[in-house]
Amino acid sequence: MFMYSVKHQRASSVAHVCELLAAHPDARPLAGGQSLIAGMKLRLSAPSLLVDLGGLRELTTIQIDAQHVTLGAMVRHAQVAQSEAIRKVIPALASLAKGIGDPMVRNMGTVGGSVANNDPAADYPAAVVALDAVVTTTTREIAADDFFVGMFETALLPGELITAVKFRIPKRAAYLKFKNPASRFAMVGVFVADFGSAVRVAVVGASAGVFRVAEMERALGRRFHAASLDGIEVSSAELLSDLHSQAVYRAHLIAVLAKRAVQSLTESGSKP
Amino acid sequence: MNDADTPRVIATEGIEASTVEDAQYIGKPLLRTEDRRLLTGKGRYVDDVVLPGMAWCAFLRSSHAHALITRIDTQAAREAPEVLRVITADEWAAADMGALTVVHPMPFSDGRPMNTATRPVFARHKVNHVGDIIAAVVANTREAAQDAVELIQVEFEELQSNVDVAKALDQATPLVHEQFGSNAVFDVRKGDEAATRAAIDGAHKIVELELRSNRLAANPIEPRSYACSYDASEERYTLYATTQQPHYLRRSLAVYALFIPEHKLQVIAPNVGGSFGIKGNFPVEVATVVWASRLVGRPVKWTATRSESMMSDTQARDHFTKARMGFDADGRIVGMEVDTLAALGGYLSNFAPSIPGNSYPQTITGLYRTPNLFFRVRGVYTNTVPVDAYRGSGRPEATWVNERLVENGARELGIDVVDLRKKNLIGPQDFPYRTLSGRSYDSGNPPLLLEKLLTLSGY
Predict the structure, then answer these.
(1) Cβ separation of A1 and B146 shorter than 8 Å?
(2) CA distance readout (Å), B396 to B294, B351, B381, B426
(3) CATH no. for residue A11?
(4) Fold (topology level) of B47-159+223-312
(5) Measured between alpha carbons, how far is B77 from B91 in angstroms, rounded to an integer?
(6) Does A4 touch chain B (CB under 8 A)?
(7) So where are chain B's domains?
(8) Cross-chain residue pair B307–A42, CB shorter than 8 Å
(9) B57, B305, B312: which to substitute to probe chain A, counting the most A Cβ within 10 Å?
(10) Domain count, chain A
(11) Which residue of B has its CA nearest to A2?
(12) What's the domain range around A198?
């Protein structure tokens, strides 16, 4: 299809982005464009102005310290997938990025774009929530648990731009997803992160947005072993039923994938 | 072929299986004459055709499966920048233009003709499937045409829709075409019903199945596209079309839709980027593109978007079948009974009725000796995209039903699935073999083929 007529402006700095967004209420920041452009081509989205973040080098850095991996908002999925440093400290994050879409999507798509878009089947929200991340914006810091509000909805206010996402480095973590064989989006994705003191389990693809499974977190917190998840059932009441799967099947997949994720971290010799 | 010295072996009748193996072409890659052109990016498809002064056509399509059109207001679209023309069912009818056509009709078994509702070029008063065309806009650019389509105001009165083939003939199901008093298109029966039922009911083992052959979309990589220019001084059209059958398309357009002499229309079919059958029929948009080129006095093109392909290219299959097969204690087939409902969509596309009505039952007994057969096939209207020929058109659906019955029979009798098939296969001595479904097989050796398959697959 053909998008509506739209203006395009390349931003020269983050401050410039803020100026443009403030001056044009219908403007949208353009990161990798992997959802926004497709939506525009289907005429589902009609911004008056695209504020192109492509030239903002300051948003493309990867910083790693003892406790955190901080990704600039414009870091591409392929960069994360290929980063030796990230693979060393949070291999699950690199493998999550490597499993997004196809090479074209990974070369263009960005962490900031994915998180801001909050597609219920996107992978990154699982990492943000399970790795207890902090989303840094032009005006504030937002904790992961407060960031994702609903389907394609976040705590971001008009004119507010994500500049970085800071992930906590866990003791160990794994992300497994059951891919829709056609689109390769997650029909269900489960991210399990063990911080020693606590375990976080985040699920994407299964409902209107990413959510945590408290019962699994408590069970794994007591003993980090697949057997700890025996008998824990996720209610299908709030899960999606669509062309691809019934809610009960998604509920079943959550339990299966969570177990396999834990197994991959506890069985000797296996790496996530 | 550059190897001109090698003698050509041409497969003819009576050829032995061993000779086929040594043949020059079978199982070997062949360089086709078009390969060099296509592989070096020199292919030319209809969408590559750019004619001087070419305008673009875009269509307003129904987003409802079933609805009455109570009002169409095209004024804003007509007044939009770059727009050359807006066409609706009224303009089409006022010009006394035709519709698409159906060939090879299927009757009712009592002799009544089928209930024919051909696919209109523009839906009039009522839409019968998502994607049904309500209006067309011709504009200077593709974008302007698309923008203007959105300015057309249509008021609908939504109706209950009928999309499940299995329920299409139920009393409570809404009618797609009320004038027929039923959603039935045709009702074909063949074979001795009483004898077949008796044979199956008295069989050692009866297998019963309910099967759905799902609806599918062919979805070729190259979307359908038409570009047409009109030469007023010669009253002659030149049409570039994505088509497998240019002569058929020319005839259909000239005779049924545009009412022009055939020799006034030239159809050029450049490279085709996949079709699987759907570029073989007379499709819905092309008549508008051709007519529009005369109306605006400039070449006009339309290329389907992927979304349009999904709701306007003819689709296929969509059967619901109840079938039974009886076996004797040795696993020999004693009878087969098939009752199929086949959805044909909101209207009949060209070949639609004959695919389930004729091609499908002809191969329903496959390669197995079937001493008793009764089948009934009913074509039905549903509020879905019209179906037409797609890969094998009818025969794969038949093979699916037949092989599922045979396979289940073997499993339920505890006989090896290969042994049971061997027992029932038509032997080389049986040819020519006349099936009860109406086909006559001239030659063949099914047991040898099965042996070969078993060897190749390592079964």
Answers:
(1) yes
(2) 42, 16, 21, 19
(3) 3.30.43.10
(4) Aldehyde Oxidoreductase; domain 3 (3.90.1170)
(5) 15
(6) yes
(7) 47-159+223-312, 182-218+314-457
(8) yes
(9) B305
(10) 2
(11) B143
(12) 172-266
Asked, for residue A123, whether it belongs to a domain, the answer is no
CB A167 within 8 A of CB A93: yes
Ordered per-residue pLDDT tens for chain A, 272 residues: 678 999 999 999 999 999 999 999 999 999 999 999 999 999 999 999 999 999 999 999 999 999 999 999 999 999 999 999 999 999 999 999 999 999 999 999 999 999 999 999 999 999 999 999 999 999 999 999 999 999 999 999 999 999 999 999 999 999 999 999 888 899 999 999 999 999 999 999 999 999 999 999 999 999 999 999 999 999 999 999 998 999 999 999 999 999 999 999 998 644 44
The token duo for A101 is: 């879409």
ipTM above 0.85, yes or no: no
Give the CATH number of domain B182-218+314-457. Answer: 3.30.365.10
Query: Whose CA is closest to A130, among A105, A165, A106?
Result: A165
State the smallest CA–CA distance between residue B225 and chain A in angstroms: 14
Partner-chain contact A4 B142, CB within 8 Å: no
Instruction: Identify the CATH number of the domain in which residue A189 sits.
Output: 3.30.390.50
- Strand A7-10 with A49-52, pairing: parallel
Contact between B68 and B132 under an 8 Å Cβ cutoff? The reply is: no
Residue A154 lies in a domain: no
Place of tokens 């199945």: B209
Q: pTM of the prediction?
A: 0.86
Which tokens hold the place of B30?
């062949």
